[in-house]
Structures are given as C-alpha cells and as structure tokens.
Design goal:
By secondary structure, this protein is α/β, with parallel strands linked by helices. 47% of the residues lie in helices and 16% in strands. The longest helix has 33 residues.
C-alpha cells in the first residue's frame, strides 16, 4: 500500500511538472509569434510578413508547419550577407487567412500584390519544401517581378510509375498529422517524449544524420522542431499543404525564364531529391545541387547552402 501511494505521488508530481512546463513553453511560443511581424493589407487580401536585413530583396517562402518565423529562421544568415529578407506566412498560417481559392497560383498572385503594396519591383524568391509550388508559380505568372528562383528541398512533381504521388510519406507522418499536429499539447508532448519519431516523420531527416551532426546543426534542428509550436494557428495551412502536395501536377517548367537553383539531399525522407533534379533538368539553364545526405533539413550543409544561395542570387 505504501509503495502504491509513493508511485501515485510520483505520478502526480510528474503530471504537475508536465502541466507547468507545457503552459510556460506554449505561452512563450505564442508570445514569440505575436511579435516581429505585421499584417499587410494588399489588393489581393491580407498577408503576414516580417523583415530582416537590408540590401537586395529576397522573398522567403516557408515550408509545411512554418510561417513567417520559419522564413526568418532561415533568412537570418542571408540577411547577414547583405540581403533584405521578406518572410511571409502563406495561406492558413499564423495571421494569414485561408481564402476560398488557396491554390499555389493564387498564393503566387498575392506575392505580387504584396510587392506592389511594399513598393518593391522585383525580388529573388526562395521556396522551401511545400513553399516551392507557389514560388514556381510566381516565376511562371510574374517573371517580370522575379530576378531568381531558389527551390530548397522542394515539393515538386516527378513522374512516377502508376501515377504514385511525387512526395513520399514516412511511416509515422500521417499518424502524427492526424494526432499530434492537431493539438498544441500533443505536439509539445511528442517533441518532449518521442523526439526521434518527430525527427524522422515530421522533419523527414534520418536520425543517424542528426546524431552525427555538429552541435550547431543539432541546435538548428531543435529550433526548427520547437518553432512548429504553437501548431494550432498553423493547422489550416498544414491541411491546405497536404491537399496541394498530394495532387501536384507538372508545371510548365520549360516556360520558367528566370535563373533557377534547386537543392535537395538524396536521403530526404519526403523524397524531394528526384523532384528537385527533375525540375532543374526541365527549366532552361537551371542548376541542381544534390547532397548524398542531410535529410529534409539539409543537416550538415547549412552553411554551404546559405553561401551557395547568396552567391547565386548576387550573380543575377
């Protein structure tokens, strides 16, 4: 009886600790996204945006589970190279509403409207992961506003036998999408108590790659994971991304006239390597950089990737 009482007390203490920790961390996460951005009213609708640095303008379009904050996380290193980072929240993410037409082409048109409102004539655009379709549409639909196109581990079409989807879905991804990614608390618990599963399923990066990475790269991975919180104001965007990426068709790649750079890693568990290479092969004069390892977060190559992207944009 005494043992049961002690075990019950320990369980109560652990639950209290989890309760206090969760509420502290989710409050900090909500405060983080509430600061540093602004809602810009364009003629195409509102869009959340944040800025960093000064110099050549670069529009950073985040991937699934992101928002303007994910764009800033990546863009900070480019800002240090002398670029003006314009990080947006796509449809359904954070303060950018999900319109009736939430297609990639509609999203691309809002980018152009945003530039009009900001008084910017032309930008280089970086589309990461699920942000790549709208970045490609921007280059197709508004080539006069686009100086360069960078596709980073892109969600992109590749022909597959039997009409299989262009992107792969790791074993636990759908389960986490249907559970942890519906709830701030469940996702918080997942990254606290099932971090390896989240790393492979949501970040689509092999554990061995993360385990062998530098401390700096491990910290970047942790930040990417942590900054998915709070997940609730990103849920509509995640659902829309799932719809868009699961039905990706082939764009008119041969009509993309702007200089293009595509980057991916062969062990990306979402399978973006083949799509990135296929896209680069069919866009005139595009360049492809492929790494044998690195996963969906290009772990171990971030400094080189930032350097390559910065040099590529400057050359245009």
């Amino acid at each position: 009886m005494q043992i049961l009482m002690i075990l019950g007390l320990l369980a109560a203490v652990l639950l209290l600790f989890a309760y206090v920790s969760y509420h502290r961390e989710i409050r900090e996460a909500r405060e983080r996204i509430a600061n540093g951005s602004q809602l810009v009213l364009t003629r195409c609708g509102p869009m959340e945006v944040a800025f960093a640095g000064s110099g050549l303008p670069v529009l950073v379009v985040h991937g699934a589970g992101g928002g303007y904050d994910q764009g800033l996380d990546f863009g900070q290193d480019l800002a240090k190279q002398g670029f003006r980072i314009i990080a947006v929240s796509r449809f359904g993410y954070l303060r950018t509403p999900l319109p009736k037409d939430a297609s990639s082409s509609a999203q691309a048109d809002v980018y152009a409207c945003l530039l009009d409102t900001l008084g910017i004539g032309k930008v280089a655009i970086i589309g990461a992961s699920a942000g790549a379709p709208s970045a490609m549409q921007f280059a197709l639909r508004h080539p006069d506003r686009c100086s360069a196109l960078v596709l980073l581990v892109p969600a992109a079409y590749v022909p597959r036998a039997g009409g299989a989807p262009s992107l792969k879905t790791p074993a636990w991804t759908q389960l986490l999408f249907d559970t942890a990614l519906k709830s701030d608390f469940l996702f918080w618990a997942a990254i606290r108590f099932a971090r390896p599963t989240v790393s492979q399923s949501i970040l689509a990066t092999p554990l061995s790659v993360i385990d062998n990475a530098s401390n700096e790269e491990k910290a970047r991975v942790d930040m990417m994971m942590q900054h998915i919180l709070p997940v609730s104001p990103r849920r509509q965007g995640l659902l829309n991304d799932a719809k868009v990426t699961s039905t990706l068709g082939r764009y008119e790649l041969e009509r993309i006239s702007v200089p293009t750079l595509a980057i991916s890693a062969a062990d990306d568990l979402f399978g973006t390597f083949d799509g990135a290479r296929y896209t680069a092969d069919h866009i005139p004069n595009a360049r492809f950089i492929g790494y044998p390892t690195g996963g969906h977060l290009w772990v171990g190559h971030n400094k080189e990737v930032v350097r390559e992207i910065g040099a590529f944009i400057r050359r245009q």
